[in-house]
Write the C-alpha cells for this entry.
Amino acid sequence: MKITLLIIIISSYCHSQSIELTNIFPGNNSNNADPKTNITLCFSAKIDTVELEDKIIIRGQYNSNYDFTIECDSNLSAFNLKPVKPFPVGEKITVIVTNKIKGYNFENFQGYIWDFRIKPSYRELFSFEKYPIQNEIRGGLIYAANINYDNNIDIITEYGQIFTNDGSGNFTLYQNLYTLANDIWITDSDLDKNTEIILEPYVFEQNEMGYFEYDDALTATKTDFNRDGYNDIVHVVYNDSDYSYKAYLELILSDGHGGYFTTPDTIFHLDNPVDIVFADMNNDGIIDILYATNSYATPHGGAGENAFGVIFLDSSNNILDSVKYKYEDGIYGIGFIEGIQVDDFNNDGFNDVLGKSKTQDFILLNSKNYNFDIVNSPEIGSAGVLKIADINGDGWLDLIYNLTIFDYETRAGFTGYQLNNEGNFSNGFVIEENYTNGNYSLAAADFNGDGFMDIASQYEDGLHLYLNSISDNIYYKKIPEYFHISENYPNPFNHTTTIELQLNKSFWVQSRIYNIRGICIKKFQKKLLYQGVYYYNWDGRNEMGLEVSSGNYYWVFILNNSFLTKKITILN
C-alpha cells in the first residue's frame, strides 16, 4: 500500500514539473543571422522527441513555412534545426516552439516564440539604380513574398494581383485574385504546408498546381497567442450602443486542432484604436499587444487621446502589466498616430517601437523593465509610409520612406531612406524626387538575388524598383565633412527665424517649408551654392505673403541627393 502511494506521489510530482528553453540561437531579435544559419534549442531537461519536427514551426516574412531536419545531442535536451534551403537576406524569421512538446517524464512546456533577421551582404559605398517603371503593377499596398518557391521575391498587390519575379527584378502577372484588401500578409494557419495569401479579410490558399483559391473555411489570422502552432484571432469590437469610438480587444484562441474556442476572452478596453500590433516585448517567448489610439470629436467636445501603449501578457494570456505614453509623457509633437511597427533599433536584443503620426514620427527604445525611453525622432518629419530594413548590411536596421506632398503647383512623391548609425539615425537621402506622381507603399527585399537589399516603391504610374549597386557617391558617414545645417534660431519664434547652412563643397540646394499636413507653403529659390556659410531667413509668411498660423512646421533642405528636415515652431 505504501509502495502504491509512493508511486502515485512520484507520478503527480513528475506531471507537475515543467521544462524551459535555456538557450536559443540566433538570439531574440538578432539582426545578424547568416542565410545558412542553423537554429539551436537547448532545454532544461530531456524531452520526448516523438514527432518533434511537427511541434516546431519556422516561418518567415517572405515564406509561409520552412522545412528542416533535426539533430540532437545524446541527452535529448539540445537540438540543431537545419533548414533545407537558405533564408533570403533581409527576411524576418519567426520560430514557434509549441507547447505540444513534453518532457521525457511528461513535464509540461509552455511554448516559446521568437524572431530574428537574416543579415544582407555589407556594402559601404552604395546607391540605388532605378529600374524601368513597371506600369502594369498598380494599386496602393504591395507586399513582398516568395510565392512559387523559386527563391525569387515576388510582389502581391492590394487588388489581388500576384506578380512573379524572374530573378532580376522583372515581374510578370502570375494570377489575379480580383479583390481589394485592407492589408496583405502570408501565413500557413492550418499547418498543411500550403501558403495562404491573406488579402484581408479574404484568405486564398495555394493548391497542388501552385495557384491560389479562395477558402471560406479559413480566417485571416496573424499571431499564435497560446503557442500551439495555430494562429489565433484578435477582434477590435466597437461599442455601437453609445455611438462612440470606445472598443475592446477580444481574443479567440485556437483549440490546437485547427478550430477555435467559441467563447471569446476580453483582454483590454480602448478608446478609438487606430492600430494593433503583436510582438514579444519582454523576451519571455509570449506575444504581447501594442496599440495606438487617437483623439476624436464629439458633440460635447474632444474625446480620446493620442497615445501609444503596450499590454504585456502572461502564459495564460492574462495581463501581466501595461504601459501607456502620450503627449504629456514626453512624446512631444506627435498627433493623430497612424501606425506602429516593432523591431530592435539599438541591437540590444529587445524590440523597440517606431511610431508614425501625422505630425512627427517617433522611436521608443525598450528599457527592459516594462517601460520605454523616448529618443529623438528620425529627421524626416512625418513620412507617408515607413518600412524597416538593413539597407547597407551593417547589422543595424534602417528606415525607408515614401512621402507624397501636395503644394500649389503639383503632386509630388519622394522615396528615400535614413541610415541607422549604431542606434542614431543619420541625415536622410532621397532616392527619387517625382514631381508628377504621388506614391503609396513600399517593400524591401533582395529582388535581383545578389545578396543586397533593394527597394520597391508603388507610385501612381506603376512600380518603381531601385536596385542596390556600388557607388562612389557621398556615403552617409562622410556627410558631416561636406555640409551641416544648424537648428533654427530663435525657436520658437514669432517674427523671423534663421538657419545656418555650412558647405565644404558645391551643392544644388533646394529649400521649402511644409505644414503638418505635408502641404508646401513656402519655396526658396533653388541655387547652386559654393563652399562657404549661408543663412536662410523665414518671416513666417507663405507664398502669398500672408502670416501663417501658430504651430509646428518643417523646413526641408535637399542638397543633391541628400534630404534633411528641421522642425520649427511659430508662436504668433
